[in-house]
């Protein structure tokens, strides 16, 4: 009897484990069986430790995101909430010194919406933003295409120049631009005069004419924004497999046809992203316009950002300035909501 039991036990231990449901049940039954001393083996051994590791792993993302969340609360959420609160208050110079402001209800919004400058400022801001974004995207696409055709050395030089232009603070670049277009001793006026084609433009004040004022503002903003768009599009374009272009060349497709049929569809998500960012940045342009034209001449370059500053810090109507800022935020949210939905939808489709 003992020999027979040992043979049976030996046959069970040497029996190979095969696939199938029975084998799975057998393996689960053996691993879940009591071990020496009547205690269970692997499940209890890993149960408490597994729960501990799971709890630690679930807290790790929260710990890593906490600093960024605190910064967002301090630098974005709190100022935005404070801005909304001030827009409903009678907030002026007296409130700054006393720290007390009475509740004004919708008075600030009513004064802003009924102001004669409101709708012209809205239309002007939208048109100026559209011109800046369009010019930035078109020129950026051209520069990105140029980078793909340059050699390594020349491409490196152009990339460094673009990065330096992009890294230049907008206040410093605005002051340089102001010097370039200064009357009497501005470099550009001197160059135009030296051409002896357009006459003497030495005393020409670009900021005193609406068309010329828009010219210097748009060129400055586009010049500052093109490097980011160009380098981003170039990075995306360099990821396109060259086999597509080789197949197009074998089929006899022209350069423009391959760019339209291969490059543009591949760049669509990146173009959408840089367009959203350009709309947000250009809609809130302030330093360049204020330093070059101060909203003039005769409010020709008065945008929402400039109007907010004038109402708040020139007229000391901080409540109305806050109301304009809240309206600007709402308009910007409406303008970018469609593109954000498209971007999110394209990301879900890629997954």
Structural account:
- The protein is mainly α and 351 residues long.
- It has helices at residues 2-13, 21-32, 42-87, 93-98, 107-113, 118-149, 152-167, 170-180, 187-194, 210-237, 242-250, 255-283, 287-292, 304-314, 318-350; strands spanning 89-90, 102-103.
- The protein has a two-stranded antiparallel sheet.
Spell out the key features of this protein.
globular, 351 residues, disordered N terminus, 76% helix
The order of strands across the largest sheet is 1-2
Residue ranges: pLDDT <50 for 5 or more in a row? 1-41
- Coarse structural class: mainly alpha
Tally of individual helices: 15
Mean pLDDT: 83
Order of helices and strands: HHHEHEHHHHHHHHHHH
The CA-CA distance between the termini, in Å, is 64 Å
- What is the molecular shape? globular
**Number of distinct beta strands:** 2
Query: Could you give a short account of the major beta sheet?
Result: 2 strands, antiparallel
Strand content: under 5%
Rg result:
33 Å
The percentage helix is over 70%
Ordered list of secondary-structure elements with their pairings:
Layout: H1 2-13, H2 21-32, H3 42-87, E1 89-90, H4 93-98, E2 102-103, H5 107-113, H6 118-149, H7 152-167, H8 170-180, H9 187-194, H10 210-237, H11 242-250, H12 255-283, H13 287-292, H14 304-314, H15 318-350
Antiparallel strand pairs: 1-2
Helix pairs in contact: 3-15, 5-15, 6-10, 6-12, 7-10, 10-12, 12-15, 14-15
């Amino acid at each position: 009897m003992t020999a027979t039991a040992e043979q049976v036990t030996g046959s069970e231990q040497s029996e190979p484990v095969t696939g199938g449901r029975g084998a799975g049940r057998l393996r689960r039954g053996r691993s879940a069986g009591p071990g020496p001393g009547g205690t269970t083996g692997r499940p209890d051994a890993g149960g408490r430790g597994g729960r501990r590791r799971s709890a630690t792993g679930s807290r790790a993302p929260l710990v890593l995101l906490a600093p960024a969340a605190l910064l967002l609360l301090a630098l974005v959420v709190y100022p935005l909430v404070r801005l909304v609160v001030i827009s409903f208050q009678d907030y002026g110079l007296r409130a700054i010194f006393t720290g007390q402001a009475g509740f004004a209800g919708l008075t600030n919004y009513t004064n802003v919406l009924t102001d004669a400058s409101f709708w012209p400022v809205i239309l002007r801001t939208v048109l100026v933003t559209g011109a800046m974004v369009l010019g930035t995207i078109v020129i950026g696409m051209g520069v990105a295409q140029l980078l793909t055709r340059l050699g390594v050395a020349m491409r490196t030089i152009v990339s460094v120049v673009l990065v330096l232009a992009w890294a230049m603070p907008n206040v410093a670049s605005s002051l340089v631009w102001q010097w370039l277009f200064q009357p009497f001793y501005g470099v550009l006026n001197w160059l135009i005069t030296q051409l002896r084609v357009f006459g003497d433009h030495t005393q020409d004040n670009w900021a005193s004419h609406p068309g010329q004022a828009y010219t210097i503002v748009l060129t400055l903003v586009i010049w500052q924004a093109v490097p980011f768009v160009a380098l981003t599009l170039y990075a995306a374009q360099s990821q396109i497999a060259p086999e597509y272009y080789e197949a197009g060349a074998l089929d006899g497709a022209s350069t423009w046809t391959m760019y339209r049929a291969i490059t543009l569809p591949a760049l669509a998500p990146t173009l959408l992203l840089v367009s959203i960012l350009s709309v947000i940045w250009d809609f809130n342009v302030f330093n360049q316009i204020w330093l070059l034209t101060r909203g003039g001449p005769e409010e020709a370059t008065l945008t929402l950002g400039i109007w907010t500053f004038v109402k708040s810090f020139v007229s000391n109507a901080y409540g109305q300035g806050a109301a304009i800022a809240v309206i600007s935020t709402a308009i910007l949210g409406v303008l970018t909501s469609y593109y954000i939905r498209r971007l999110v939808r394209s990301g879900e489709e890629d997954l």
